[in-house]
Write a structure and sequence with these properties.
single chain; alpha+beta; 4-stranded antiparallel sheet; 1 helix; DUF2188 domain-containing protein
Length: about 80
């Protein structure tokens, strides 16, 4: 599946998707960071069978809202 990017709270994220035997794995990474957050989406309830990509994107955007952000540093 093609990667996806989106913006949330002024931060742009890139997401890559990987199909596994049990569902999907998404690697969500802010474009200015090397750190990625890995989120698993098991097969089953929650996917729109006509729009799996849209379901995964919605799940990633919801997951980002729950990822703790680092506190700003003072220089």
């Amino acid at each position: 599946m093609e990667p996806h990017s989106f913006e949330q709270d002024g931060i742009v994220y890139e997401v890559s998707f990987e199909r596994t035997p049990d569902g999907w794995v998404a690697r969500i990474r802010p474009v200015d960071s090397a750190q990625a957050h890995v989120v698993a989406f098991p097969d089953g309830v929650g996917f729109d069978p006509d729009d799996v990509r849209g379901s995964l994107i919605a799940g990633c955007e919801a997951a980002v809202a729950r990822i703790p952000r680092r506190a700003p540093t003072r220089h």
